[in-house]
Amino acid sequence: MVNADGSVSSHTLVVIAGPTAVGKTAVAINVARELNTSIISADSRQFFREMEIGTAVPSKEQLAQVQHYLIGNLSVHEDYNVSRFEQDVLNLLPELFSRNPVVVMTGGSGLYIQAACHGIGDLPDADPELRESLHTRFNLEGLPPLRAMLQKLDPDYAARVDPANPNRIIRALEVCLTTGRTYTSFRNHVPVQRSFRIVKVGLDLPRALLHQRINARVDQMMAEGLEDEARRLYPLRHLNALNTVGYRELFGYFEGHSSLPEAVEKIKTNTRRYARRQLTWFRKDPGFIWLPPESDTVMHWLSQRLQQG
To answer: DSSP 3-state assignment of 41?
Structure first.
């Protein structure tokens, strides 16, 4: 990577991404240990300290093996967005690069990884009153009116966004209504040239095995106390952070919309759907090299790639 002054940067950000439950945490920790470096989390829900079980935060033993950043650093009461994440990462990297020329970033939140690597543009912060009015309308009328509004204001994004994701739809409407521009115009910005090299590894498994891992992880979460964690957070269910797979389904169970077994099955189904969306996002980026979630395989490839300079 050539810096603006013509010098060559020896700093490298290694991104280890992929769908939920594929094994990113274990691989990233092993790679970071081999490289004697630290890990930045790019999981948009592991930032929130109150959501440990439902977001599969690394265990205390795993966290003790390698220094992690941006895990449990926020409260669900705090308003956080991808633009703030980009700035947090850019503020953090110079300090980490001063200790080691390589830093690992891992997570499954594609938009956040994109922001750290290539910028996200000048997306405005949400106007609290506008956000509240949109969420109120969603709670009273559901998603169809909001989808119709987005179709009118930004038909391109309306055609691409997950039609069942209120967070993405409401966020796009916030940008459109606040700026008078389409959300797409911000998303289609020219990628920023970073002052460090970026190496991207995508982890994947055969679909049947990935689904098996997802189902097993949900069962493990329930055994670890996800229901109790969700009950503690139920009074805060209106907060944006808690509109998340694993919590939404249990909130529905608490409200009598399903039995507990039905809620657990919904968590598994919706997590599998989320994993498909993650893979779709990452596979659009030709910069990713796809490997199985085996630490030795990933480390062997990385060693060769890093030696190339």
So the answer is: strand
